[in-house]
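Long-time lurker. I teach an intro course on protein structure, and each term I like to show students one example going from raw sequence to a predicted 3D structure in token notation. This year I'd like something fresh instead of my usual example. Would anyone be willing to generate the tokens for the chain below so I can use it in lecture? Attribution to the forum is fine with me.
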Amino acid sequence: MFPVTYRVNAAGHIEVGGCDLVELARAHGTPLYVYDEATVRQRASEYVAAMGGAGQVLYSAKAFASPRFLRVVAEEGLGLDVVSAGELHLALKSDFPTDRIHFLGNNKSIEDLQAAYRAGATIVIDGDHEFDLLRQVVPDGRRAAVMLRLSPGIKPDTHDHISTGQLDSKFGFSIESGAARRAVETALQHPRLELVGLHSHIGSQIFALRAYEDAMDIMLGLLAQLRDELGFEPRRLGAGGGLGIAYTRDDDPPTPRHFVETVLHALTTGCARRGLKTPELVVEPGRSIAGPAGMALYTVGSIKDIPGVRRYIAVDGGMGDNIRPKLYGARYEAFLASGPDRATNGKVTIAGKYCESTDILITDIEMPSLKPGDVIAVPAAGAYCLAMASNYNGMPRPEVLLLRDGEATVMRRRETLDDLLAAEIF
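-- Reply from a regular --
Happy to contribute to a lecture. Here you go:
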């Protein structure tokens, strides 16, 4: 669950990246998110090393995309997948190499596609409407490099809300229905497109790698059909991302190396069995890079005891900075930052400060005795928390720090109350 630099220092406090988290909370205030640069680099380099020269690793910007963070990802040799003109804008402002950017997403607008084409990103087409829009975007006599997102009809063992590869999904061209083959024909005949690859993504927070093997087998079956009937073999084949991480003590996810080696083996053996040329593999991790690197810090406020029912520990954050418990039923662990090894003293429920009864971060967790002013640290908070953060109840979003060798660099300042009015017209 913890960043690779996690330790308990001489003061008995949690330390990450050489920085005392209790001291950071005092200096910067809470809610506060911290990212360990060493963890980001280690996870990214593990993916790249496992891939070798067999393909590309693209970081999924939707997990967390701050310019300083993206620069670290780029330095480790990763590419980037973005799903909006906004994420692309962040990437360009980060000086991310544009030849390593893929633009995904369903229902792209003409403005999205224009931005992607101008940047020179590989466009991953998700629906028939994009074929028509690209006729308007790509100038006559030019060709844009594209891939097609396909749905292999696989439903992995994950939450329904983050399962994306089944037939009933808003994403991609279904292989099962024949839409995928028709889309390939359309792309090959399109005068302004160069079809360089096919892409799939089956879901997120996945532990059972067999689902990836099954999806690859279906994709390669289609490739054999496309070769035999259309004479087409793609240069790239995307297997998506979605590798899960440990959010609780009970979670035991595969490593990035195991994930890549499993998918790569399924690709190479499946191609050999069918006599196919082995395409370049593309994988798109996001959560498994950003998630373990990030921790959220909160300060305890009010404490409410309901005899015989539960004890509520209220903190100064909640669903505005982490919607996942409400959205997916996500489960986290929490630790007293000033004494993570202190003995527990019964179950509590950690509640947020937002005006919703469902604003609960963690239900029934064993914690030591807590008092107002204590700092609570929540690990594995680096992915999708800040990316889905909001200003609900007029709450400013938290500050974000990048930690390295005892230094804390502000990646994103804390929003002010005036920031809430920046887009308002009076």
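Some talking points for your students: The first strand starts at residue 7 and ends at 8. Confidence is low (pLDDT under 50) at residues 157-166.
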